[in-house]
Specification:
89 residues, mainly alpha, 4 helices, elongated
């Protein structure tokens, strides 16, 4: 069970890391005033990285490393609850 929770946590860090790479590579293509032109990308990033959703909602900046850490912790907790629910069957 510990290995599966570690996999959940690493997948959370991987998801946040891939979004970071994507936004770094495309930042010069999407100036701040054209953000509404790509709504599906930003919706998917907010749904897959809950700390980004909270950051946008409460209007505070968050660093990349903190986003990676928070996303890993969030996915780890979701994995913990999911593994607990699956173990009751």
């Amino acid at each position: 069970m510990k290995n599966r929770i570690a996999i959940w946590t690493l997948s959370g860090v991987l998801v946040a890391g891939l979004w970071t790479v994507y936004f770094f590579l495309t930042a010069h293509f999407f100036p701040a005033e054209t953000v509404p032109l790509q709504p599906i990308v930003f919706i998917l990033s907010r749904l897959s990285c809950p700390i980004v959703l909270v950051s946008f909602y409460f209007h505070f900046p968050i660093g990349i490393y903190w986003a990676l850490l928070a996303n890993g912790i969030t996915y780890g907790l979701v994995g913990l609850f999911a593994e607990r629910l699956w173990s009751f069957k």
